[in-house]
Amino acid sequence: MLITCPYCGPRDVIEFTYQGDGNRERPQPASQNLDAWNAYVYDRLNPAGDHNEIWQHSGGCRSHLRVVRNTVTHEILSTSFARGGHKTESRS
Amino acid sequence: MSPRRTETGGRIDRLRTIRFTFDGAPYTGHAGDTLASALLANGVTLFGRSFKYHRPRGLLAAGVEEPNALVTVLRGEVREPNIPATMVEIYDGLVAVSQNRTPSLAWDIGALNQLGGKLLSAGFYYKTFMGPVIGPLKGTRFWMFCEHFIRRAAGLGKAGVAPDTSRYERMNAFCDVLVVGSGPAGLMAAKAAADQGARVILADLEAHFGGSANWSGETIDGMLAADWAQRMVAQLGGNDNVRLLPRTTVWGYYDGNTLAALERVTDHKEVAAKGEPRQRYWAIRAGTVVLATGSFERPLVFPGNDRPGVMLAHAAQRYAVEYGVLPGQRIALFTNNDSAYRSAAALKKAGAAVVAIIDVRGDISNEMRRLASDAEAELLAGHAVIATEGGKALTGLKVQRFDAMSGALSGDERSIHADSLLMSGGWSPTIHLASQAGAKAEWDPARQAFLPPKPTQRWIGAGAFTGSFSSAEAIAEGRAAGLQAAGGAASSAPLPVVEAVPGDPDPAPVFEIKAKGKSFVDFQHDVTAEDVRLAHREGFVSVEHLKRYTTLGMATDQGKNSNVPGLAIMAEALGKPIPEVGTTRFRPPYTAVSIGSLAAERFGDLKPERLTPMHDWHIANGATMYSAGLWFRPMIYGLAGETVEQAYVREAKATRESAGIVDVSTLGKIAVQGPDAAEFLDRVYTNMFSTLAVGKARYGLMLREDGLAFDDGTTWRLGEQEFLMTTTTANAGKVMQHLEYFLDVIWPELKVTVTSVTDEWAGAAIGGPNARAILASCVTGTAVDNAALPFMGIVHGRIAGVPVMICRLSFSGEMAFEVYSGAGYGNHVWEALIEAGKPFGLVPYGLEALGTMRIEKGHVTGAEIDGRTTARDLHLDWMLSKKKPFIGSAMMDREGLIAPDRLELVGLIALDNRPLNGGGHIVEELDEANPHDSLGHITACCYSPALGKYIALALVKGGKARHGTRAFVSDPLRNRFGPVEIVSNHFYDPDGSRMHG
Amino acid sequence: MAEQHLPERQSPLEPEYHPGSHGNFEHGVDVILSETRPGSILQLAAWPGEEKRLIEIIRNVTGLALPDGAGGGVSSGARAAFGFAPGKFTVVDEAEGFAQAFAGAITPAIGTLTDLSHGRTAIRIAGPKAEWVMAKFFAIDFALPAFPLGAGRSTNHHDIFAQIQRSGADQFDIYVFRSFARSFWKALCHASEEVGYEVQ
Predict the structure, then answer these.
(1) Res. B555 pLDDT band, cuts 50 70 90
(2) If B295 and its partner were Cys, which of B427, B601, C62, C148 is the partner (CB 3.0–4.6 Å)?
(3) In this structure, are B846 and B924 located in the same domain?
(4) Residue A40 touches partner B, C-beta closer than 8 Å
(5) What number of helices (H) and strands (E) belong to chain B?
(6) Would the CB atoms of C118 and B801 count as touching at under 8 Å?
(7) Which of C108, C117, C196 lies at the smallest CB-CB distance from B721?
(8) Domain range holding B713?
């Protein structure tokens, strides 16, 4: 499987670390809403189809990426930096 | 001249004689021979014994699909089993042996299995050896008892036990177009793509490029097809943008057009050049793949179709045309299609007598009739072979009139004298890679074959792979595929002109002749047509279940010959058309792949390892090294005759009495920099760091999001916006990822950079009552007294001219300092400290003494921060700030995490004065015969020189409340039982007076 | 503080560094391996939006004008610079103490400077088979059009993280963690035996 890092270009999946479901929303740090924390820490979507995921290019530029991947076909539909703001042009 | 070698013909070099042995007997062959062709030339007919029945077997094929002639190749002590003799290129000194025979190929006691053939039908092992349902040998136990004997009697070659010292390598390759297969289609595709300027890789599993052009005998562009192919190869070889990979099997097609290939670099060589790998594993990322993988000729299923001398028709043609070897003197052919007539013509031309062509079809075209008559072969249309005769070689066969529509046999049996029977059951495109790439094959009723599916990845098919069996089609499709793959426009330029004997590509839909006797479907796993029907009778309707029950197609050849005939027979039994029975999906690898090639260089001396700057000093000074993850760290610096325990006790004692020094360079070190660094640390650690003064360090604890303890370490504030975080050695990578995740994903607004500086700094921790005096004697540029360097203070100075950073902190519980210097100076500083320490009796100590002193102090490490413990469990609740939220703060007080029966950190003293073991359980009442009711377990243990006792840290229910009570260690695995006293984890100097000094 | 005489930095490769020709060199040496031992290896990082200012600072201090785009870099003998991650650059100089040259220039508003002069080891591979040998380790495309002169890449070989700069048509500079350097060097020598190599 190849993942196209917006900075490094297409790289083998062995350079990446899966960092989980990208749909989760972290409650405000001071939030005491245990249900919300519980959902954030433990609940994961597990669709058969397109899925928003976080991957780290740990064996490359170390950026975290938002990846839309089809969990059935392994097709990668899109990748983008998890951390916005960097203007560096990507290499196709 | 060998008995079966023709005077001329073939691409072998008759001037070069190669000497080799097979089963100990010496043979000769010629350069260019395979082991199969050379032995065949020597008149060898018997190549192996079959898997289950130990039947004698000869060559069936000439290529990679060979199921019978599997051999073991020996190189010194190293043996590689299960290689098709057809894929072994001979070299001087080759030693090959046959398999699955005792004591010899000719006299095999396992052949007795044939007498009990009925017993060994499909599912025999399951049915017989699953054992009684009750009693001591019930179920799997009985199977396990029998398995040993069964495995010995059945099976393929034996793996060796000698370590394989061959070199294997991995290679990463990128190309615009990967062409798999180098027949006319592949050659045209590679040429067309290369001419467009694309980066092209052309791979073929055979040693010689050309595929069917090498043996078809056709004419292309006015020259022999084989010569045309060699001209194409020469042209391709002259291109900088083309890489030719002969002897390279593309065995896996993965997501993202990533393909795996195995190149046999030196298997065909007597001696490898220096540094040359035996095999290379190619990981190829291709823009587009052209699949020109050709097709396999199918066997026909009839009684005795496995007798040595029965061979695929095109294989015989290959032996004759490519190697100048005739499989027999009197050849008969048995076919359901036209291609065998071309083989007959080629063999006749090579000098063999073709005695008969037996064709299941009643209606034969005039062209084929003419070919038969040109070959002077008797044509028996509407006939079938019903039996073969002979022992270890074929002597004759029996035919009978056959109706292709009904499958009925009629009329008198007739015997034909022949020493070679060639069969052709039609052709199956080699669609394995396309199937691996993700889509389902489609049945073509005209071709009676599975054709490749629509591409689900970027590949284009060409030639016989697509079911286009003629060379002219292959050439046209190949060029079109190559142009398309390279992004070029279709070409209307004239194509190379092929002159070939025409023939109908569609066979008669006949797969099996039902007559008395064993008719083999899967030669390698000894699965007969009757086994398939038996499976059906016993209720197996799914093709997947059929495979598993009969083991059809599950041998090393993965059903390359048997797949379609097996399905056809199953379909007939089910009364369904073949496409409704379905085919199984092919999975990698296409052929057997050596484990060595997958491991490549990642073993032994070449495994990645991490060394500290002082590594060589440790080795030179007698350290026994210990691998901690990828790091190597001193375990002890043992003296002559010392045990490990004696060594660490001596080291720890010397440290507490005077001074000791330990290499702490492996601690994870992360530079945390930027305007928001302090804020970030406040969020990451349970305690405050924004309040830490510049030039001071603080012990910090991190939790995970779920509230459990994660890692601990000291973090030093080197500047207003600059911190040096230390982590445990084991968690350095995990902590780094944790920090990066929060900065990238959760708090992108924070201006903080985190950088691994583990390798930037060498660290030496020097501790003990004399540590400060030693430092004072060698540090310049700063004082190290209490005023200048209080507990958790940091100073900068020099040692032996080298800038150092010194922080006063303690893990051993003694007055101690961590001395950091640039890694390139690490050994220099270390040696200066050792020298300065000599008057004080400074000793270097290893991990064992380090561990001992930390147990005495009751500090926690990864053994206690084990992913299940909370800060409270470890008595670190004093570190949980109430002034701010931090990672894990919301979850750490959940009901289950503050329950009174949680395991808490305690100390243990062995009351029987015997060593304790990590993992031993703690119980209230001892019952050695029936250990139960664990209160917890030991996490770390040692002999404490400070206490003069065997002690341990443990996680125990109730924790502090049990201090001063007695319990027992119960460790049935190591038979260690005995009384312990539960005490505080702070065994030694609990108020810290020694380190605060 | 007065400049004191510093001892020579120890190379992590020392016991495994054997100058001379090795491997299958009878037919010629196809790669040359060396440790370049630059005095300074620096990591410069810009906050999002500050990349252009940082590139400008790098140009002012080093004289190297980094081309736009991911992984862009320049190598000019004594000095080299390249991007290796979004907003992050490696700057290398043969002299020690080059971090001083950036002091004051990289303000907290722009980004950070991290000195990795001891923490990374620089290994150079040069010669007609450099791409071939590199391809044994790293799953990236080393062909010149895909990996232009001066450009930088971040990748890894098993657990060994590496930054690679193309410093010549057939020359690469590889920066690895110091603790892994000896292990990587041994593997690099091993992989170069096939083509014949010289250690300089």
Answers:
(1) confident
(2) B427
(3) no
(4) yes
(5) 23, 51
(6) no
(7) C108
(8) 668-756
Mean pLDDT of the B17-27 span: 97
Of B741, B756, B771, which residue is a domain's last? B756
Does B866 map to a domain? no
Q: Does residue B651 belong to any structural domain of this protein?
A: yes
Domain-embedded: residue B506: no
| pLDDT at site B145 | 58
- Among B283, B744, B885, select the one facing A30 at the smallest CB separation: B885
Q: What is the pLDDT of residue B125?
A: 58
Number of Cβ within a 10 Å radius of residue B12 = 22
Measured distance CA(B192)–CA(B235) in Å, rounded: 12
**B437 lies in the same domain as B410:** no
Size of interface A-B (CB pairs under 8 A): 65
When pLDDT is cut at 50, 70 and 90, the band that residue B2 belongs to is low
Is A76 a member of any domain? Answer: yes
Handedness of CA B104, B109, B110, B112 (dihedral sign): positive
For residues B498 and B220, the answer to whether their CB atoms sit within 8 Å is: yes
Q: What percent of chain B has pLDDT over 70?
A: 95
The total domain count for chain A is 1
Write the pLDDT tens digit of every residue in B451-494.
Answer: 998 998 999 999 999 999 999 999 999 999 999 999 999 999 99
Interface of chain C toward chain A, CB-CB under 8 angstroms: 48-49, 51-52, 68-71, 83-88, 139-140, 153-156, 161
ipTM over 0.90: yes
Per-residue pLDDT tens for A64-77? 999 999 999 889 99
**Total residues belonging to chain A:** 92
User: What predicted TM-score, i.e. pTM, was given to this entire model?
Assistant: 0.93
The pLDDT of B814-841, averaged and rounded, is 97
Of B610, B801, B824, the CB nearest to C5: B801
All domains of chain C, ordered by start, with CATH?
12-37+119-200 (3.30.1360.120), 39-116 (3.30.70.1520)
The rounded distance, in Å, linking the Cα atoms of B179 and B242 is 11
Question: CA of B254 to nearest chain A CA: how many angstroms apart?
Answer: 7
Residues in chain A with CB shorter than 8 Å from the CB of B438 are 73
* C177, C183, C188, C190 alpha-carbon torsion, rounded to 10°: 180
Is residue B732 domain-shared with residue B771, that is, in the same domain? no
**pLDDT given for residue B463 in this prediction:** 98
3-state secondary structure of B835: helix
Answer whether residue A89 is part of any domain: no
For residue B81, give the amino acid letter.
P
Tell me the shortest Cα–Cα distance from A83 to chain C, in angstroms. Answer: 9
- The angle that helices B339-350 and B313-323 make with each other, rounded to 10 degrees, is 30
Q: Is residue B303 part of a domain?
A: no
- With 0-12 / 13-18 / 19 or more C-beta atoms within 10 angstroms meaning exposed / middle / buried, residue B702 is buried
Sign of CA dihedral B560, B562, B565, B566: negative
Report chain B residues whose CB lies below 8 A from the CB of C43.
755
